[in-house]
Amino acid sequence: MKKIIFLLLGVILLATCKHQTTQIPIGSGNPIDNPVVTPTNDSVCFSSQILPLILANCAQTGCHNAVDRAEGLVLTSYSSIYSLARNGSLVSTITTTSASKRMPYKQPAMDTASINLIKRWIKEGSKNRTCTTNACDTANVLYSTHISPVINTYCKGCHNAGNKGGNINLDNYTDVKTQTSTGNLICAISFTGCKNMPQTGSKLSTCNIRKFIIWKNHNFPQ
Ligand code: HEC
């Protein structure tokens, strides 16, 4: 009888362990919910600058996520992105002029700033750097300095003119203002009952969410 109880306990324990491992979030160890850090002379941060870009542009539904694994590739971790970065295929696929080979597949090319950031990260050795900034800069929240960098990093890959996830375009000031003024966007990034966004990766930092709320309260300064 005792043996059976131990056996049962073992099975339950094993089951819980397994459950826990599957709960580990994407890119764990690389918290991607840090405030966006604008690149200065410092080296590029994988966690807050590269991973969210790759998740939004490459790990969409039907592409290189853990479920769809297009071409057998899952691009949600440092190690997988690192391999492509080092063998040259990351830059060549996002910059090739051959429309049928260029990534993101059948979508507009990534913008020059994002491509340059990826190139710089590779040139610097493709390090797994995590950056945390303690200060949350929410003084004078403007579209140009506070809102657009967050959208470009975390959202634009899935919400642009050529790829309107949920029929929502977040390409420019007017588009973002429209989605923010309806309350839709803030609801989505705050996880308060809408579809949680970003669709891939973790929730934005409290600091980045606050920027949208302040921007809306101040009537969307540009
Ligand atoms: C990996 C792709 C992807 C990323 C990254 C992404 N979205 Fe989305 N988003 C979608 C898709 C697809 C839908 C439609 C979802 C559906 O209808 O099930 C959607 C829907 C939405 C909606 C409508 C939500 C609702 O409940 O109606 C908003 C608002 C939104 N996204 C904003 C954002 C913002 C802001 C970001 C960045 C912080 C972001 N998204 C990042 C793919 C993405």
What does this structure look like?
With 222 residues, this protein is mainly α. It has a domain of 75 residues. The protein is built from nine helices and two strands, in the order ααααααββααα. It has a two-stranded antiparallel ribbon with strand order 1-2. α2 crosses α5 and α6 packs across α9. The longest helix is centred in the first third of the chain and has 21 residues. It starts with a helix and ends in a 5-residue tail after the last helix.
SSE arrangement:
Layout: H1 2-22, H2 46-58, H3 78-86, H4 89-95, H5 112-123, H6 143-154, E1 159-160, E2 163-164, H7 173-181, H8 184-190, H9 206-217
Antiparallel strand pairs: 1-2
Helix pairs in contact: 2-5, 6-9
Residues 56, 60, 154-155, 157-159, 165-166, 168, 179, 184-185, 188-189, 194-195, 197-200, 204 line the site of heme C (HEC).
> What's the arrangement of strands in the largest beta sheet?
1-2
Count, helices: 9
Q: What's the pLDDT, averaged over the residues?
A: 84
Structural Rg: 20 Å
